[in-house]
Design goal:
This protein has four helices and five strands. With about 160 residues, it is α/β, with parallel strands linked by helices. The model has no long low-confidence stretch (mean pLDDT about 90).
């Protein structure tokens, strides 16, 4: 199956305008597949801890915590932490959970503790990605490093 429709968010435009347009579009059709990641602080998309699990708006403006901003520098997206925006547009947690399926890709040893907290711990806003435990159809793609702290190794499908 090919991806037939997608909408990119332009972070250089007025965030309120971008969100209004994106929210209107997403209300017109359900999301079949969400592509997400888990951050070093266990953020889901850019929903940093403590994440708002209740907000119904599909897209929101979030404040990025220092750990999330530093991750952006460490991954090479920005040269210094002062260059990283303090706010971002993110899909809300509830909107992510409304997706028919969720595909989550999490590479790297630096994310191992976040993966452990997200998959082995309780569901809590302090570990935003832990909410993925509540969705019936999540495909989690981990490498050996990001899965290294899990109590029980994930099942491997071939």
């Amino acid at each position: 199956m090919n991806i037939r429709r997608y909408h990119l968010l332009d972070g250089l435009q007025d965030p309120q305008h971008v969100i209004r347009n994106a929210n209107a579009l997403i209300h017109s059709a359900p999301v079949d597949l969400a592509f997400v990641g888990i951050g070093e602080n266990a953020h889901l998309a850019f929903n940093d801890p403590p994440a708002d699990f209740e907000i119904e708006d599909p897209y929101i403006i979030v404040e990025l915590d220092r750990a999330c901003r530093q991750q952006q520098v460490n991954e090479g997206w920005f040269p210094t932490i002062d260059d990283v925006p303090k706010r971002a547009i993110s899909m809300s947690v509830r909107q992510i959970l409304k997706s028919g399926e969720i595909l989550c890709v999490v590479p790297g040893r630096q994310k191992a503790s976040a993966v452990k907290a997200s998959l082995d711990g309780p569901v809590t806003p302090q570990v935003p990605a832990s909410v993925l435990q509540t969705h019936p159809s999540v495909s989690m793609f981990l490498d050996a490093d990001s899965a290294s702290q899990l109590t029980q190794p994930p099942s491997i499908e071939k």
